[in-house]
Amino acid sequence: MKALARAFRWKRMLDTGEFATIGELAKREGIAPSYLTRVLRLTLLAPEIVEAILHGKQGPEAKLARLLEPFPVEWG
To answer: In terms of domain of life, where is this protein from (predicted)?
Structure first.
């Protein structure tokens, strides 16, 4: 849940122009830009998956480490 909250917060900060680049935001947050980019991908999850995570009803496949991996090309 914490990673989802961060992802949507960072996305909002970028969308509103508070930060112009991922690099600027990563520097401010004290993290690597590559990590920030991986976490930002969580905002691309289907709403049903986000909802399940927020309600603690996600399956064992929805672990953070797995969700931070690149999404499969064939993922529907």
So the answer is: Bacteria
* Separation CA 21–CA 63 (nearest Å): 28
Provide the residue type at 28 as one letter: R
Total residue length of the chain? 76
Structure tokens at 53: 């995570």
> Residue 63 has which token pair?
């672990």
Distance CA 2, CA 68 (A): 13
Find out whether 49 and 67 touch, Cβ atoms under 8 Å.
Answer: no
Identity at 21, one-letter amino acid code = T
Write out pLDDT tens, residues 12-66: 999 999 999 999 999 999 999 999 999 999 998 889 888 888 888 776 666 666 6
Rounded to whole angstroms, how far apart are CA atoms 70 and 6? 18
The reported pTM is 0.75
